[in-house]
């Protein structure tokens, strides 16, 4: 496999992506981690920093960064898939706010490690601008700010922008306003994950690549090459989790797809803006997300690819020409100054993990020694760092502010068996698409989309 073809990001790292050696045979460790994405590697990193004597093994079926960590939109944000009100209903207002503050701190923490470890990943903490391009979207922007104020979050956390302020940050067509939060950094995601892999190796962690784990059980991870025995086994497999025995209904793999343009001219960038490399989106229902890359491209993505029956994950699902065409069209609508043809140079996608109750979680079962983290939906770049720090505390038995956060040891229900799962996930995707179309047509907010959000517990 040519790993470079998996994303624009993996094609633009300064290394050949040669796989590390595989597991040579049976081994013993203190902690074995399955999956070398951000979750697995952040866990290894913080464990190794806290206790350099720990024997830590990471097993990866392809190469570090093969999964979503090497392919995402590069928003290192303070976002969570669960809204503040939903968290608050489940855990109380104070604990919901603790979680939000911990995520804001996480963005700074990732920036600190990137600097300390010399990880060259185009880190730029320029915040996020979310645009409103219709009256309905403007209403949603106002509601987002009002909700933030109810929870004591100030202008420094999220501020409403009028049309001129929003356009000054991101001059998309038809902008009527928006919101801005400073709690986000744009990052080259593949350089981050690959740099992190080298940072953990410098601290003595052993990473074995092209080593698929066929079973995870108490005390061991099994592979065709041998068994790694360890009192703690961490599952960090996110969207690929359903392929593991016993995990088919743990998360649903939903695909997010992206395109990248050729580098745009300085004149075009002078018109578009994004001068601080703010990440950007808008207030439609079907999520879109973008960043101005350090080399002057637009990297732009969205949901909308179908969920595949039986939670199957296959390389050909990464490519959905219909979605790529839609992304290109939306980019052209947002930024007509690019010209009649948006010059797309790369297209790719990957699976993310969605828990049944849309809640990310991190935990350790002390009786079995089995640990996990994930279910981040499209917000894992930041939250996997918080998960890694938290798992390091849980595994070392160190009670901390992190281990008291409400997502710790949260158990999401399992997804329905098929065909219900397939029907439900794809129906949800369709509701959001038709809601956006209906809102454009009628100029009124979609009641079906609001009802669906409530059903999901947002
Ligand atoms: C296109 C796209 C855009 C996104 N944009 C953003 C964004 O802008 N911001 C954001 O916060 N989040 C975003 N996300 C989500 C984010 O990328 C993920 O939440 C995050 O990378 C998850 O990290 P992870 O380490 O848990 O999982 P992954 O990066 O998927 O890593 C899991 C690893 O486990 C390995 N593995 C799986 N099964 C096995 C096995 N049996 N044996 C051994 N190894 C195994 C895989 O090969 C993989 O390397 C996006 C995701 C996608 C797909």
TrEMBL record:
Pfam families on file: DAO
InterPro entries: FAD-dep_OxRdtase, FAD/NAD-bd_sf
Signal peptide: none
Location of the FAD dependent oxidoreductase domain: 30-394
GO cellular component, one term: cytoplasm
PANTHER family tied to this protein: FAD DEPENDENT OXIDOREDUCTASE DOMAIN-CONTAINING PROTEIN (PTHR13847:SF285), SARCOSINE DEHYDROGENASE-RELATED (PTHR13847)
Identification of the protein by name: Glycine/D-amino acid oxidase (Deaminating)
